[in-house]
Amino acid sequence: MNLRRFRWPDETGIFVVLLIVLGVFAALSESFRSASNGGILLLNGSVVGFLALGQTFVLLTGGIDLSTGAMIATTGVLAPIMLKAGIPWPIAALLTLGIGAGAGAISGIVVHYVKVPPFIATFAAQGVLSSIPLIITGANSVTVTDQGFAFIGQGYLAGIPVPVVLLILAAILGALFLRWTKAGVHLYAVGGNRAAARLAGVNIARTTILAYALSGMCGAFGGLIATSRLMVGFPNTGLGNELFFSIAAAVVGGVSLFGGIGSIPGAMIGAVLIATVSDGMNVTNVNSYWQPLVIGVIILLGVAIDTYRRSRRGNPIRLSRWNAIRSGRRAAVGTPAKS
Amino acid sequence: MMLRRSAVIVAVAAAGLLLAGCSGPGASTGSGGASGGASALPANCKSDKPTLAVSLPNTVNPYYVAMRQSFIDNGAKAGFTVKVAIANDSDSSQLAQVQSFIQQNVCVVALNPVTSGPGAAEVNLLTKAHIPVFTVNIDADRDQVKSGGGSIVEYVGADQKEGGKVMADAALEDLGSKPAVVGIAGEPNETVTVDRDKAFEAEITAKSSTSKVVASVDTKVDPQVSLQVVTEMLQGHPEINTVFADTGPAAVGSIQAIKQLGLSGKVTLYAFCAANTKLDSVLYRGCAAQQPSLYAQIVADNAAKFIKGETVPEMVFQPVKVFTEGQQPAEDELG
Question: What is the mean pLDDT of residues A55-59?
Fold first, then answer.
């Protein structure tokens, strides 16, 4: 094996940062090193993980989704309302995911057809989605009546919390989708160079709407998990740091804010990094006034180290996957289409 | 040419600023004093239905939803036209709303500041406009009010410190001879919740020398955040046998955190009451509730008395209601 030609994955830098942070907290606290804390860390990070996953699809197209936290609030209240209406929990869960995807698709339609910048369109969606649960409930909580619903947030499969299993499955499916499907490749294409993508036959409208729909569905997963863990739907859950953390996780993991660059493994490492920092500080009893500062500094350091590493390699901004794919898989793209 | 024109523009702007500076604060400085007699009250107070303007931090917290409704209902009963403004947890929005009240020349303002410091600035503005101010739930910073020449007719709210104290007493009583090792699920950015936490800690350490608070986490008054941070706190401090949650939403998250870690029976929760949650004998053993509807009613009634020239008390501290095993707070009894 020629080591000189071996190319470390782009996520290596941030993965090393994650290992360092894990090492520091493990050295500081015996409790942090326990297996049960590992489970708690991943469980608590699952909602932000889902949001980061959805955010990745949108960021890859060059957009941004500011409505993901509010999606938790809306879907987290709609699910228990459906359960109260007597709908069996698996169907209610699927309907909730559908609502999330539908609401996300509306944002995509507004972005593409009305030409509203993603920042504004999804900011407006955030307002709408954060108001809906308040209007429906009058700011009161909605108790979950079907105990089976607890499986989503409190169940275990092979000793692993169900939300973690769901996130791992979703991340694997998402990564395969981006790597091996035409629609996935088109997400990179639209974000990498919209005009070139259009000329190459990429359906810009469908791709954009798909990205926002996927983000909406991931937000709905977050809402389902949050409500299932509490067994109560709260109309203002998800309106705190979740949005910021979802964007930070994706960006820390190497997903570009300008589109066309990034990967789901990177975003997931970013989400685990943020979950680790949050968990580690609470386990080691860091004063809450310091916690946002520490998270901010670690995110900044993580991105700076990763950027430095890439620039040392002579590839500060990785050529998008689109460029690589364009050269090797032209046939998969197809003929020019209306956008 | 361009440079000369720019210089003229700058000079005119500077002169304008200088003039504005000369005529600004000096001209508006006036003596405060909203606690005067009926002659000092705004003209609106002499109308058939004077206006009671209410400014609340938000309506996403059931606590403020109950308070808002009570102001509307009891304000009307007391003969007021009630206007409610919601600040969406923004001090600057609340300041703008208070300035709007001044422009509307309302009769009296009931203010629940978003935070105490900026609340003092709002009180001072209202005092300068001769509009009497009642503070409710969160008081404005009294030192800043005093130094700014403002005055507050009356404060109405729960005795927050008593709430923390009675919960500490309940925890110690349930533990018997065992020391309390406490984790606080708190909100460190609000004075009222900090008062609750401090009172809890002071009482528990004063009554039992071996008891102590070993950890504290920020729940952000969000049950989902509370669930997350309390699980992490309990992971880091397996010696904790008592959790004190200083708000209702924090209590909801704490209950689930203790249950999901399988610590029911080992860790007991004392809190400011969670909405719609019954207390039990194992996990959630005690809570203290405030009565936002009652506080709003007291403010509305006393505001009506005040504008008629009657004397009202400067401070009304309502005791918290304590709930124990098997009891459930009513809908308007919240943490």
Answer: 97
| Count of CB pairs separated by less than 8 Å, A with B | 103
pLDDT at position A257 is 86
Q: How far apart are the C-alpha atoms of A316 and B107, rounded to whole Å?
A: 64
Identical fold between B34-152 and B160-290? yes
Partners of B315 in the β-ladder: B155
Q: Enumerate the residues of chain A whose CB falls inside 8 A of the CB of residue B275.
A: 140-141
Phi, psi of A154, deg, nearest 5: -120, -5
Regarding beta strands B242-245 and B181-186, do their DSSP bridges make them parallel or antiparallel, or are they unpaired? parallel
Q: How confident is the model at residue B116 (pLDDT cuts 50, 70, 90)?
A: confident
Q: Does any CB of chain A come closer than 8 Å to the CB of residue B69?
A: no
Kindly report the nearest CA distance between residue B314 and chain A, in angstroms.
Answer: 32
Q: What is the rounded radius of gyration, in angstroms, for the C-alpha atoms of chain A? A: 20
Taking the Cβ of residue A288 and every Cβ of chain B, the question of whether any pair is shorter than 8 Å is answered with: yes
Q: B160-290 is classed in which CATH architecture?
A: 3-Layer(aba) Sandwich (3.40)
Asked whether the beta carbons of residue A278 and residue B222 sit closer than 8 angstroms, the reply is no
ipTM for the assembly: 0.79
Q: Which helix (H) or strand (E) holds A123?
A: helix A118-137
Other Cβ atoms less than 10 A from the Cβ of A16: the count is 15
Task: From chain A, pick out residues whose CB is under 8 angstroms from the CB of B236.
Answer: 29, 31-32, 37, 282-285
| A214: Cβ contacts below 8 Å, ≥ 6 apart | A54, A57, A58, A101, A104, A174
A250 touches chain B (CB under 8 A): no
Among A251, A239, A273, A238, CA closest to A17:
A273
Interface residue B57 vs chain A (CB under 8 A): no
Q: Which fold has domain B34-152?
A: Rossmann fold (3.40.50)
CB contact under 8 A, A278 and B228: yes
- CA gap B106, B75 in Å, rounded: 14
Q: Which of A16-30, A171-185, B14-28, B95-109 has the lowest mean pLDDT?
A: B14-28
A34 near B CB under 8 A: yes
Average pLDDT across chain B, whole number:
88
Distance of alpha carbon B270 from alpha carbon B286, whole angstroms: 5
Listed range (A249-258, B230-239, B309-318) with the worst mean pLDDT: A249-258
CB of B233 within 8 Å of a chain A CB? The answer is yes
Residue B31 has pLDDT above 80, yes or no: no
Q: How far does the CA of residue A76 sit from the closest CA of chain B (Å)?
A: 11
What's the confidence (pLDDT) of residue A172?
98
Domain spans, chain B? 34-152, 160-290
Bridge partner residues of A116 (DSSP): none
Which of A29, A285, A286 is best to mutate for the B interface (most B CBs within 10 A)?
A: A285
* DSSP β-bridge partners for residue B56: B86
Geometric angle at alpha carbon A242, from A170 and A225, rounded to 5°: 50
